[in-house]
Design goal:
Layout (H helix, E strand, L loop, with lengths): L3 E8 L2 H12 L2 E6 L5 E6 L17 E6 L9 E5 L3 H10 L3 E9 L3 E7 L5 E7 L2
Length: about 130
């Protein structure tokens, strides 16, 4: 069984969203630069193992936040851990879904992709670097 391992929240105003979620839920939010001038905000909702950066509480997940634009999902996204993104995307397409963003590597961490299910929902896939 493949589990949900991450969530993402798109925002029109990332600073406003950071203040909102941080003040209400006490989440730790850290914005880091990404390639091509973009930024990504990591969202820590639970303690993590310092070695693996994985949540220490069973069933808990952490997430991220990004600037909403015409190329990113417009609604929150849940991300599912898979062994191989390319194989998962093939299965998605075989079952009536479609690829939104193909396999995209994140050096030293893994890769992600977005897909749309037959109901029109956009979800994410995550493949960890071995």
């Amino acid at each position: 069984m493949q589990k949900v391992v991450h969530f993402e929240i798109p925002a029109d105003d990332v600073e406003r969203a950071k203040n909102f979620y941080g003040s209400i839920f006490g989440w730790e939010l850290q914005t880091v630069p990404m390639g091509e001038g973009g930024e990504y905000t990591s969202v820590k909702t639970t303690a993590v193992d310092e070695q693996t950066q994985m949540p220490t509480d069973p069933g808990a997940i952490n997430g991220g936040m990004f600037q909403r634009d015409e190329q990113t999902p417009s609604a929150p996204v849940i991300t599912i851990d898979v062994e191989g993104i390319d194989d998962a995307l093939k299965q998605v397409e075989d079952q009536g879904g479609s690829t939104v963003i193909p396999r995209t590597p994140i050096p030293g961490m893994g890769a992600f992709a977005y897909f749309k299910d037959p109901e029109g929902n956009v979800l994410g896939l995550w493949e960890s670097t071995p």
